[in-house]
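Chapter review: from sequence to fold.
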Amino acid sequence: MENIRHLRSWLRISRQPQYRWFWFVAAALIYVSILLFPIAGIEKEAKGALAVFGVTAFLWATNTLPVAVTGLMVLFLIPLSGSMSATETYAYFGNKAVFFVLGAFILASPIQRSGLSTRLALTVVSRFGNTQNTLIASILILSAVMSFVISSYAVTAMLFPVVIEVIQAAGARPGGRFGLAAFLALGWGCGIGGIATLLGGARAPLALGVLRSTTNGEYDVSFVEWFIWSIPLVVLLLTVAYFILLQIGKGTVVSLPNALKFLKIRSKSLGGISPREIGTLVLVAGIVLLWIFRGTAWGLDTIAFFGVMCSFIFGLASWQEVEEDVNWGIFLMYGSAIALSAVLRDTGAAQALAEILLGSWINSGFICFVAMVLIITILTEGMSNAAAVAVLMPVGLALAAKYGIDPRAMTLGITLPSGLAFLLPVSTPVMAIIIGSGYVSPAEAFKRGLLLKLVGTLIFLAMAKFYWPLFGLGV
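The token string follows.
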């Protein structure tokens, strides 16, 4: 135990700005060591790709640099290593996944800025929050449904002030069970709902971009297929989460009449629904319908940009607001991750890495699938969801090819469990936000989230084994 405490203390000190040089030296040593270490049967180009992969995984996992800066480093290192030319590397920024995410993020701006999201939140919570149990349920379900069409961390940020004002008006205090249950409902709802569609976060479009690139466009997953293959996990996990939250909040008494009175005052202060809100609602509903019915024919990215074009033409979006709302740096990560997956595939490095990591003890496709699911569920707690997906996708697809697994199944097997990040604030901005509320301690988040994560992983594996084959997807 003493050694563990010393290690934790050293790690905490080493994260201070004046000691960042240590992590850069470690990254450089990883790069040079892989280049110099003899690996039988691996060509120079593949070894260079593995070196870039090792540095990238280390930097993303340790958060030594922002993910966008690490992305820029990838774009520098790939040509430097001789694994792929600069022209080929930069071309991967033209991947459809990058532009789909860009369009979806821009469309989220008018939803927030028009007040539509706030009005929806207040309406649902005030109408269905008549008892403590239904209030918790309304927060959980509302956050999940909103995360179907808006990135989960954006939904958390939007609903955060609503939830904190409601529980404060109800008389809940930090450290109490009701506040803990309410904020866990917000975080869990956003996290679970974010895996249901391609719009809940960055990881799904990124994974599909890697899938298309790796299979040369032979395999893809439509908007509807993703929803069909993921929705049982979402519904069952929301049900489990609700019963866990009921146990957490059991035995506490708060003043709901005060909270409902506050919500009515806030709702009236918004005034009548504005033309911008109506227009945004109609536009978003139309774009989602196009994604469902014409997504395969027209392309999800093309439809997203059609929505962006309409939002500016009809005055629903403002470029100044979009500039402030969209995380532009994240696109550097997407493009670099797709380029990295391509160089790992083309040089044979992904196949070699798969053999090194898992090839010696895996003897069936399903065991391979389970191993990748377990790895991503652990990895996603220590690094961002998108970064974890970017690191594992090339390896997973190489293993899928070796063991005859449908690459779409492996894509879902890596991406969906990556959204089950309920334990640590470093895992996702959603958890960082709710832990920062003061109502959820890191210890409570870990303890309560661990049960949900374990149950979610078991539900997912059962769904992949027994449900997916009914809809043409086998593991």
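Two observations follow directly from the output. The mean pLDDT is 83. The chain is about 75% helix and 0% strand.
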